[in-house]
Amino acid sequence: MKRSFTLLVFFSVLFALMGVMTDKVHNLRTKYLAASISQIGRIPSSVLVATSLEYKGVVADMMFLNASNFIGRNLMERRSPQPEEWQTFYLMLDRMSALDGRFLDTYVFAEMMLAWQARMYDEANSLLAKARRYRPDDWRMPYYIGFNHFYFQKQYALGADYVMQAANISGSPSYLPNLAARLAFYGSRSKTALLFIKELIAQNKQIELNPELEKRLAAFEAAASIEDAAVGFINRFDRRPVNISELVKTGFLSAVPLDPYGGEWRLYIDGHVDSTSNFVEREK
Question: How far apart are CA 34 and CA 73, in angstroms?
Fold first, then answer.
């Protein structure tokens, strides 16, 4: 009996120590990733390109994996990087574009993280503008810039102009000219976001952050359903709904859809919908 009790105490202490060590290893790895990104981000592009010799593509791939691990860990922990971390992350992506200007994942990753998560719209657009020089035949680069101007920066005419530039590139989707026209007249922001998110998911096979994008897609689908309901209400009653609850009471919505990020929906006088969550994961 005494031996059993001793063994129980021993294993209890052992598992406790393992838990503590796991947390320490986890924290050390997180700090290492943050430090490595910061160090690489400080290296001037010209120096990095010169010292990489004929292995520029390999170095760019390694940097991309390191950046992916850093962002992935923050998403898993529901932790938002600090502004200085985002800045060094941007510099790292900029160095990657200098090493391999045609590396598509750099620019998709920049759009996903800098524009959508860090809200560094100018920095994202700067990288995408660089991408246009290296990938002049890729309609997605002006398309992403156009979306940023339209959705985030509320520069509707400029956004429409970039989307029209994307529409004029061979191989672009047939819906882009109509989308550009809708942007110019400030159409449904949520429906525009749906098209954009679906395109990002299609391009996101290697970055493997699809769960986050799928969640954001669900959020915009919910927002678009509210916008559609508001349009139907206006067409029937020739006035704007007082609030979203009125859309439910009048049957235009069966129920108020859930925001997967846990926020409360807001319906504006111009008809667009957003959420108090800003479609950003709450930190634990």
Answer: 10
Q: Which spans in 148-277 are helix H?
A: 156-167, 176-184, 189-202, 210-237, 244-249
Render pLDDT for 142-199 as a digit per residue (tens, 0 to 9): 999 998 998 888 887 788 889 889 989 999 888 787 777 666 655 556 777 777 777 7
Q: Tell me the C-alpha distance between 31 and 34, whole Å.
A: 5
Considering the chain, what is the average pLDDT of its residues? 79
Asked whether 153 and 123 are in contact (CB, 8 A), the reply is no
| φ, ψ for residue 267, nearest 5 deg | -105, 120
Q: Are 215 and 261 in contact (CB under 8 A)?
A: yes
Domains of the chain are: 13-206 (1.25.40.10), 207-284 (3.30.1300)
Rounded Cα–Cα distance for residues 146 and 121 (Å): 11
